[in-house]
Structure formats: structure tokens, C-alpha cells
Amino acid sequence: MQQAIRGAYPTICKHDIIGTIDASVIITADQTFAVSCDQAIALITDNNMKEVVEFYAQDFPAINRFIAVAEEEVSGILEVAISTKSEITIIYKNDIKSVININKMAPVDKFLLKTKYSDNPADSIWLPASLIANHIPLEISYEDAVQKIMAANDKLAKGTVKEELNTQLKKMRSTVKTMKSISGGIEISSVHNLADQIQAKIESGQKGIYIIKTPTGSCKTSAVLEPMMKYGIYNNKKPVYVSHRRSIVGATMLNEEIAHYEKVKPGTEQDLKALKVVVNSTVKLHLEEFLEESEVICIDEANQVLDHVLTGSVDDRIGTYDKLKDLIANTDTVVLADADANNDLLQLIANSGRTDVAVYEINADHSNIRLSVTDADSVHALIMSTVAAGNKSLVAMDNKRNAERLSTGIRKAFPGKSVLTITRDSIEGSAQQAWLQNPNFESEKYDVVIYSPVITSSLSITKDVFSENFGVFSGILAPSDCMQMLRRDRTAKGFVIGLQNPKEADFQGADARAIKQAQRAFEEISEFDELTISVTTKKQAMKNRFSGSFCYNAELDGFNVQIIRADSKVQEESQKLRKKMSRAEQAEYVENILSTEALSPNMVRKAREQGLEMDQNTAYSIQRYEIENCLRKKEIDMDDITLYGRGALKYVLCNIYITSVSASACKRNDKNEANKAFQDKTLWEVRNRFYSMILDTLNIDLQKGGEFTNAQAREVLQALHVEKQLWNSLGIMSVKKAWGNVTRATGTVNKILEKVFGIKTSAKDVNKNGDRQRLYVVQMDRLNRVNEVVRRRQGAF
Questions:
Q1: Which of 254, 332, 339, 506 is surrounded by the most beta carbons within 10 Å?
Q2: Would you say residue 504 has pLDDT above 90?
């Protein structure tokens, strides 16, 4: 090691070495301290502290670095210490006074460290205040947050700190209010005579759009939507019920005279009296005539329908949006029901050209319902202890994978317990369907029922079956959608909620900004784009501060919110428990995939398009088919399942293909996708250019592999930083501010390589012409496996 360093540093950056550098080095410009110290020293001799620190960080990252300075000099080396993850040793009178362990600091504490050593601390608190606000009130109280910031620098005034924190919290609260507020509401006390009022208006020949904005549990479906559908049937008005989920359509409006859209065959639509349809399918040609003739349309969870069309999984997004807008424009009576109807919904109506809108609103008051809110880890431990005690539990989770992990963990820990899990993969199962049709009766059979967002919003449990109700949410859904998921048990007077903020926050609104910037580079922004940006921006803002947004949303709805601070020991044990659950779920997943046979392509198509009666193994049979189809391989093993990565390989194969397409073909493909919504476009030319730049800069060939240095990795990140808006629009990994002047870039670049191309690398040290270098070499065994799949896909199955 010593020889390698001495051979390298004279040609890279000038400094002296005192002692033998092995596991650690102290970097200092203080010669007196250096001479008196008995540890290995890198002595700065040319006013080049930054360059020397970066030299050791880049070329010898395994060596622990300590930057030794006097306390008054700390502010000058903070940036390089943080960017290179080097510790700071504060020296006083040739002795070590203290050590600042930067590597163990949370991001907010690093920013507070800058505030501590700033000459103008008031100008530097906005970023730590922004990050701390993200954890109010779940992890820290408002007053404690004020004290935490003030403790960083005694020059800070309490009023200044409060003002900055209030600014950050006001932004969050304003967004939550905006997502729930609507203009021109008519306050009512009950929905039970609304259907009669609307029907009377129809009888008088009055057309209109009626928005029903009433709280979850206020009987919107039974008191308004169902009577309106029946009225439409009996008066030959060809009523239509629209939702955003197939599961909702299947479990709602269970009237034999209301036809399910999947059972309507072309040529039979003239026999229909009423129709229930998922919004994606309103564009089907054989339904067009009936939809055009309908005089009454009921759109359930209307805000979620709009959100789904704008940002969800929809094949013909713009066509579906235009159809939804046409239905609103041309149907005499339109009823839109949603507890959180907001001005985005009004904008959709305005875009349709209608102005005859009435909004009926009931102020929420759930003060008799207690929400005990804590962190997600602790709630997992509470769920396990509740099950162990024999108490029946209902658990809502916004993450399908987490729901599966919890289910596996409970079944492994308590083999005698009966657990029902309802996710997108299992919802068509016979047990799941039975529960959805009659939850009051079927719930008696289970110790635990766990469900993901796939569950229908119209489902209500009115029998007091469950002793405990839990919710575990991680920012995948908006807070209002989480609350709607949670309140399926109408008898519950108390819920225990576990919240987890997303790991990746975007406080600059990069997602929405990137869409807008990229669209301007290609085309004019349409009304569809503007509405999408409006929704996306607000959703991202609430996701950034998810726990605070959830709590404030609950307070606005009138719930009795109680914050439970996490116990660090319980939290630590719960994290170990969740890791154990994750390993168990992965092992069970692999075992089930290997032990099942794939469904035929025809059966998979039926399962996706028409529903299919399933047992507990059918979901694995579908996934087995998807793996075999992707790999073009019938006999698969554990390595194949790992390579597939639960679908990540499909994205990798697509990207590898894009890199092989010519510039002219990319232009042609982009032209063919011109009519798609921006978020659905492949952006062939943009992706091809970025991917080629990354591979060329790193000297990587997708057939032969390659190797690169940290300097080349830095060049990649700096290039992406220059075009950050366009790169962000690809949704791969948002550009960070530090990428513009990054020191250690290989970790981030390796993540990009694995996500985009399926490439993994290994580090090795080499000596070239007397200079030591660390190279990152493509692992050829993995790349060869990916290329084998590419070759098989180019041939026959």
C-alpha cells in the first residue's frame, strides 16, 4: 500500500508522507502537529488540501481519512469532508481535541454542521429546516425541531428558526388542503335525499353535473350511486357506472340488469339496460354506441379515476382522457363521487366545456375515531404481538411486496394461524373473491387479513369481527387514498398506523419539472399535459413529506390523531424482523416458482383480460410463464429467477435493444409515438443518446465488457448534470446537485449501470506506468447471461 501511494501521489498532487500509511491517514497542513503526531500523516505543502483529500478518496477509498484542522478552519474543509466522506479531527495545541464522525451522520446533521460553522447561520438553515420538517410530527415535535436547529449555532434567533420551519410546514399543509379542496361547495348534512333531488332535476328537464364530496363511510354508493343507476334503468336512460379498478367494477353494482363490461360481446350491446365499466375500457369500439346513448353516468372515486388516467397504467392514455372528457361533455346527467374531490376534477369538467356544476359537500368529523400513528417498523412488531395474543387483525398496506412479506412472516412464525392476503397477484383467488363478496361472514375464518390497494373502495365490513386494525403506508399512495383504504372496517373506532417516508425525496419537484421541460423541447404543452403536471406536482410534494402530510390530512378529516414516538430498541428489533420476513418471502417465492408449471399464453391472456378463477398457486403459474417468456427458456433454475429480478430484466432488455437501434430508426420510432402522452413515450432518440454516452465514456461494450475509473464515472455524472431535466424525464435516477462537482462517482454510476443494463462491476487495483489506479471491471459472467437471453430472444422459443 505504502509503495503504491508513494508511486502515485507525486504525479497527481504534491504532499509529503510522514510515517507508514496502512488503514488510516491524517491529512493536515499543520506541520507542528504532523511532527508531534505518532500516526501516519499526509502533510499539505502546496495549499492543495481539497486535491489531496480527493486523491485519497478516489484512489485509495479503503483508507480511512481524517482531516486535521483547528476549529476555526473547519468551515473551509467541510464541503470536501462531506463529499469524500472523510472524518474531521479538530486539533488544539498540537493535540486532538475532538473528532467529527461525518460517516455516521444523517443528511440533516451534515447540513446542521455547516450551519454550526457558518458566519451567517440564518442564511444556511433553510435546507436543514426543510429536511427536519419532513419528520414533523412523527419523529420529532415542532418545539424539539426548533431546539435542534438552534443548537447548531448560538447566533440563531428563535424567531428566525420558527419562521423558516413554518414556511416549510406551510408548503406541505397548503398542498394537502389543495388536494382536498374544491370551489363552490354547497354544504349538506346528509346524502340520503341527494338521489331524489338529482332525479327531480332530471324530471324537470334540467341537465347537470353533480359532484358528491362527502367523507368515507357517508354512504355515497348506497344512498346516491346505486339509486341513480336504478333510476336510469327503470327510466330507460342507459346508465353507466365508471371506476378506475377492475376489482371495484366486479364487486360493485351487483344488479343483474347492470352488465359487466367484460361480459359484453360485440353485437350484443343493443340488449344492454345498464353498464359498469373500468375507465380504461370506455374506448372499446363495441361499447361506443351505448356510451353515447347514455343519459346518466356515475363516476365513482372520480378523483382517483382522473389520477389513474393521467398517471396510472393505461394503454391509450390520451384516448381514454378524451373519452372521459367526451362522456362528461355529452351526457345529460353526470354524478362524480369522491371524498377528496378537488379543483383538478373541476378543471377536467371545465376542459369538457360544461359549466352546469353543483358540488355537494359534508364536512368530515371523525373525532370519535382514534388514529395512533408511529413508524412502520414498530407497527410490524405490534402486528406480530397481536397475532401471537390471538387477536384477529385487519391490515391495510400500500406496498404489495411488503404485504406479501408480512403474510409470509406471520405464516412462518405462527403455522397454526390462518392468513388471507389480497394483492394484485392473488385477488382472483377463490378465497379472496369469497371474502370480497361477503367480508362480514368470510372474515370469521381468518386470524389475519392483509390487503393492498387492489381492494375495492366500496367494500364495507359492518360486523365487529376484528379486534385490531392496522395500516402500514410508505408514500406509494396519497394520504387521502391511504385513509380510504384503511376505513374498510366501518365498526373500528381505533387504528394503529405505521408510516415510512420514501427513501428518495425530490424537494425541487424534479419529476413534474422534468416532464414540463422535456415537453417544451419536443412539443407544445396540451391541456392534458397541464393537468398531468398539476396532479404530479402535488403528489410529489406530499410524497416528499409523506408522514407529515398523512397526519395533517387526518386532522383535516377530523380524526383524533395521537403520535406515538418510536422506541429505539423496539425499532431496531423490528428492522431485524422485517429483514427476516423479506428473506423468508424471497425463499418462498423462489420455491413456488420452481415447483409450479407455467400457464399457457391463452390462459394468461384470459387471466389478465377477463379474470380467471384461481387457487393459491395460479399467481405463481402466471409469474412462471412471464419468466419463461422473458428468458425464452422452459427449464429455469434459481439463477434464472435471480437474473429476472421480478421483472427488472425486461427493462434491461428493452434498454439494450435501444442502444442497438440506429439514429434514423430512433427518429422514426419517436415519430410513431408522437400521439402518446409524454410519460408513455419511449423517447428513443433521447435514451439512445444518453445510453451511448454512458457506455462510450466508461469504455464499456455490451458484448465484451470493459473497465473504467472513478474519473470516467465522474465525467458521466457531470454530463448527466448538464442535461438534468431531460435525464430526469427518463425516470431512471434523479440528478443530485452534487453530481455537478462530484468526487466519488463510482457508487452512483454502478447503480445506473445495473438498473439500465443489468451490469455489475468488481473493483481491482492496477499499476500503470508507475501510477496506481483503481478500475471497475464489468462482471462478465452476469453480462454473458444477459446476452444469452438476448440471443435466445432473437431466435425461436
A1: 339
A2: no
